[in-house]
Amino acid sequence: MQAVTEPKRRRSPKQTQTIPPALVYEQWNGKPIYYRGYRDVLAGKKTIEEIMSCSDLQGVLVALLTGHLFGILNRKKYLLASNEIGLHVALNDNLGSDLVIFDKEKVGKLKGKYFDVPPRVVIEVDIKADVADFQNKETEYILQKSQKMLDFGVEKVIWILTTPQKAYVIDRNDPRWYIVDWTENIPVLDDCLLNIQQLLTDEDITY
Fold first, then answer.
1. Sorted alphabetically, which InterPro entries does this protein's record hold (predicted)?
2. What is the count of structural domains for the chain?
3. Which residues contact 152 (CB under 8 A, 6 or more apart)?
């Protein structure tokens, strides 16, 4: 896939320094990526807690995905982690992820810090970052962040978007990155498949 460029930053250094560190969601090559809605916090319209919280559907999906994968993955072989996992991909380069699957033997002892080894699979539910400075907004952010993960060593990135009810499937071994409906079976790892609509239907969840 053709490489994408880093987002152009339009804020002056003075403006950046006035933004509280708590509003930084990620760091890309030393540049802050802020939480979506951070401008409302600066304007006094919302609190930090409000923009950091997820919606009802986002929260339910992350819980369902975690429970589903926990029940079908080989947990002797793989380590599953969720709850806004921090990935330290390089110096001054830190990403956040909703749900990750590691080869357990590569992780070793947990250190109480960001993970510094690449997961096999990353699953994201919606976008928590402010994408105003990205040329094509959400799409550009998804593609750039996914490429950063692949460069780090992640094998597959799955983005689940609640508003269009679509999922991006991005595989480092397949140049045909594609988008599917929630009704489709998505291969995750080994023989593990994910069908988002089926998960919600099985739990009698309407949305």
1. Nuclease_put_TT1808 (IPR012296)
2. 1
3. 87, 89, 90, 118
